[in-house]
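> tool_call: predict_assembly(chains=two)
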Amino acid sequence: DVKVTQSSRYLVKRTGEKVFLECVQDMDHENMFWYRQDPGLGLRLIYFSYDVKMKEKGDIPEGYSVSREKKERFSLILESASTNQTSMYLCASSSRDRPRIYEQYFGPGTRLTVT
Amino acid sequence: DQQVKQNSPSLSVQEGRISILNCDYTNSMFDYFLWYKKYPAEGPTFLISISSIKDKNEDGRFTVFLNKSAKHLSLHIVPSQPGDSAVYFCAAITPGGYNKLIFGAGTRLAVHP
């Protein structure tokens, strides 16, 4: 069974703290993604990675960085958390193999609150 | 500027009736579309997809229709069940490789007995 796990379900951090969100997938997928979900805005892509040590900016990368040292693990880093980064963060992965090349599999999400 | 739009934030339907969720897009280069379903406190799960070479794809109670000339797609759920109550996201694959998805804002479906 396909599985994407995220390190925390809920997280509360203070403004200015460095925050690490971890994501692990057990499907040997090449592609991994980080999104944030906000009401009325849907899911917006922050960063993605198509291979180990490779990363590409998504639509809203400002204030974030990522790390992919191993194929199964993709980390999202908030260098200095701000209140406008309070959101639900979702990690996803996908394969490069057909026929399911376009389907992304999501983790349960991390609800981050920055105070 | 949202390239994928779901203009109805919510929809309420009686159990057993048809639910129709709509999605519009602006980029004629989009050629593959997906619907995801999301329950509270869970990640989205893939529901159904359609390629632009088709105008309909059916999977059990779920059917997606694509009207390329109108840049419009819709998801039909027949018959609707209380367990279908969730947020539904429409998404399109962006051209240019990497298989990135661009999502709409979502529609919250409530199916009541």
